[in-house]
């Protein structure tokens, strides 16, 4: 994001030229993908996000890039086909963040569900309760493999194992397991950083493209959109020929704010917990455990580095209340772990992080949340005065490129333009990414004079090949912060200068994974704030306020318990 070194200079670029052909509202992955597509097409496009990039549902995902095997049951074949194709593409063009994910389904019956599944397919309601058995899962996986394509695929075909072979691989599974089915999807360990990379691609591709976080759309009048700086409260007008509402579950609230009320959305809340639990981590054997809980909900236990992610719920959301992971949901997560790993005790003290988001699903009346379509659509309306407004309803992480292309091309149609042929170019730090063990070793060897191996591993994982720009900024042999080998004061300054950091919490939650993994301490809060303050122009009082607010966010919104020191 070289063109905008901080939130304030990014905002200044909007205020100095208060207009664009297109204004995108919403800095989640789908708004950012649409921004990138239009920027690559040479369009004068601007994007604003009322919070930080990827702060809403995009940052509260299950960290999966998947074809959506369970959507076959809903009859959403178009979505599954598109999602599998996009999953395969992202494994190739974003290899720094998107990795193959071995996924195992434990199965406890053979024929169960064969009668209930057609009823669910037709009615999109739970209907007759019967768990999905081996035959039904086999049919689904065969279809899933067919969608992935027999030629040129970059994931293996699925495989079934019987009880004895399954328990030999996963000995902590319930003893009455009859089969396991294993297939491959993909993971995105750091969705926030992938969102930033997609955004940065757009900014670098087009000098007219501009984007700022902490800017909200609060109205629309004769002089165009009314925008508000959320960090200062100052407002200004911004003119655009087309406005795109990509605010996710808040689409209706955004439309109401500018005088065009809608009832498009019916979002559902999904929560997760992150555990520091070596026994559970080992029991997963490096694979996601993806299964049907006793209530029929499809849930997951997912190893991420040295932590375990557990999710997710699917509850109708009250948009007037902040999305939080409740104690009742935590109890549900403990119960689902016990459903497949009954001998592994899990307690509250194992939780290092909680998070929750609202899926941007369409209004669904009495359809059960799990059966609401995960596909997307685009609603076309006009604001008073005739300005076209395109509202995005739905959208999944996996299909962000395809969605951005579809929505972006509709914008081009509104502008009377034709899209240029698309290309499958690498995303950001995925360019020239070392794709083999030998290439990876060579990458480290060429930089061994700049930093120790462990530090290079962190930087490559965090930035992909953009790590070279970070290494140039921080200089050789950069000392990391006391007790935190993953971050240095110089890198914090880089983040503040180049990645539109607006608050201290941005660093811990969305520029690094330190909060997600439970590695934030009181001492680290102070150290990072001290390094960030001169870059963002914070005085002593503002720095102290940022520390206090970050502490509150981590504790109240994410259940984080901070120790005093980094030791």
What would a concise description of this structure say?
This protein is of the alpha+beta class and 567 residues long. The protein is built from 18 helices and 20 strands.
What does this structure look like?
This protein has 567 residues and is α+β, with helices and mostly antiparallel strands. The protein contains 18 helices and 20 strands. It has helices spanning 7-16, 29-40, 77-93, 116-123, 134-148, 163-169, 191-205, 251-257, 278-284, 327-340, 400-414, 437-446, 453-463, 467-474, 489-498, 504-511, 522-536, 540-558; strands at residues 19-25, 45-49, 64-65, 98-107, 159-162, 179-188, 210-213, 215-221, 224-229, 235-245, 268-275, 288-292, 298-304, 307-311, 315-316, 351-359, 377-382, 388-393, 480-481, 484-488. A hairpin with a 5-residue loop joins strand 12 and strand 13 (298-304). The protein is globular, with a radius of gyration of 23 Å.
Write the layout of secondary structure elements.
Layout: H1 7-16, E1 19-25, H2 29-40, E2 45-49, E3 64-65, H3 77-93, E4 98-107, H4 116-123, H5 134-148, E5 159-162, H6 163-169, E6 179-188, H7 191-205, E7 210-213, E8 215-221, E9 224-229, E10 235-245, H8 251-257, E11 268-275, H9 278-284, E12 288-292, E13 298-304, E14 307-311, E15 315-316, H10 327-340, E16 351-359, E17 377-382, E18 388-393, H11 400-414, H12 437-446, H13 453-463, H14 467-474, E19 480-481, E20 484-488, H15 489-498, H16 504-511, H17 522-536, H18 540-558
Parallel strand pairs: 1-2, 1-10, 2-7, 4-12, 10-18
Antiparallel strand pairs: 3-6, 4-6, 5-6, 8-9, 9-10, 11-14, 11-15, 11-16, 12-13, 13-14, 17-18, 19-20
Helix pairs in contact: 2-7, 2-11, 15-17, 17-18
